[in-house]
Amino acid sequence: MKTIFLCLVLFSTHMLLGQQELSTTTNINVDITALDLASAKGALKTFIAENNAEIKTQNETKNSINLTLELNDNQYQALRKALPNWGYISSDIINTIDHQEELEEVALEIDFLKKKKANYEEVMSQHEMKSAQFEALWREKQNVEDRIFNLEKRKSALQFNQLPYTVDITIEEEMTMPENSRVTFVNMPGVEYSYLKIENPVDTITPSAYQGYFIKYLFTRGKSYAGVGAYKAIDKSPGDSTFFSELFVMNFGQDFYSRHLGRGENKFGNLYSGYTVGYMAASNEVKKEDIFYLSPSIGIELFKNKYFLWDTKVNYFIPFSYNRNMRGIGFNTSINFVF
């Protein structure tokens, strides 16, 4: 049977000489987060059934599913098209292994063993078939043939691998509410400039615009921050004491990245939305008011790396007192750096 198998392998190799040899295998690890895990699971299983994909391992829990698939080229290309529809691809690692060197080593060993087998046959021909020397040489020759058989199988598998892609897919449910959340703290102080345009200014309450400077302290990667600073009225007339000319501000804010636009992982152009809540001491030369406010915002990170962040945003300033005559649109830009 071994001899027949070897003949078939050699014949198949000869017939496939005109085809491209696949001496590489590719291992892919893909991690996906999905808002609708049940739908993503269903889509994955439908893909497996429609493409007759081979499952190597499978592990399914309440909040995730992990599968290892072995795929041919057509199946892999179909998978690549389907992956973005199942959720957000948070990790996609591809590792290609070239087996050319291993093929050369296997071929050399096969050649060596065939010569060794020929030597055994030549020596065996010099002994009687029933002699002890002949039987010992025959056993050694059988061991060599077994090794050749296994090496030929390995060589054939490396040269003409029908399933060259091994894909490990993990789909996890995306948590929209905190659940065993881990907060990553950072230490990034910085400065912020703000221009506040008042929507309905009144001479006795507000000027048409303020500008201010703030210390902005970013303390989570999420990102959460605290700030302190002051606004001053623009184009204030000497002796004008009727409106609030200075606004001393303390605030806290959070920004959130879009799950559809990179989740803040890009170096340039991360879009985000957020809010700021705070306390404001509004004053002039004759009076002072304590005012709390809320300020929803939308912004874009112009540049970000592990050590530096430059972003800008537009916010709508909503005070809880003097709401009609103090609300307005703010334009902010800030720079933070690792300290």
Please, could you describe this protein's structure?
The protein has 339 residues and is of the alpha+beta class. 28% of the residues lie in helices and 43% in strands. The chain has helices at residues 2-15, 37-51, 73-82, 100-124, 132-159, 323-326, and strands spanning 24-34, 54-60, 64-71, 88-98, 165-173, 185-198, 209-220, 224-233, 246-257, 270-283, 288-304, 308-319, 328-337. Strand 11 (288-304) and strand 12 (308-319) form a beta hairpin. The protein is rod-shaped.
What characteristics describe this protein?
disordered N terminus, five-stranded mixed β-sheet, eight-stranded antiparallel beta barrel, 339 residues, rod-shaped, 13 strands, alpha+beta
Brief summary of the model shown:
The chain has 339 residues and is α+β, with helices and mostly antiparallel strands. It has helices at 2-15, 37-51, 73-82, 100-124, 132-159, 323-326, and strands at residues 24-34, 54-60, 64-71, 88-98, 165-173, 185-198, 209-220, 224-233, 246-257, 270-283, 288-304, 308-319, 328-337. A hairpin with a 3-residue loop joins β11 (288-304) and β12 (308-319).
Give me the secondary-structure topology.
Blueprint: H1 2-15, E1 24-34, H2 37-51, E2 54-60, E3 64-71, H3 73-82, E4 88-98, H4 100-124, H5 132-159, E5 165-173, E6 185-198, E7 209-220, E8 224-233, E9 246-257, E10 270-283, E11 288-304, E12 308-319, H6 323-326, E13 328-337
Parallel strand pairs: 1-5
Antiparallel strand pairs: 1-4, 2-3, 3-5, 6-7, 6-13, 7-8, 8-9, 9-10, 10-11, 11-12, 12-13
Helix pairs in contact: 1-5, 4-5
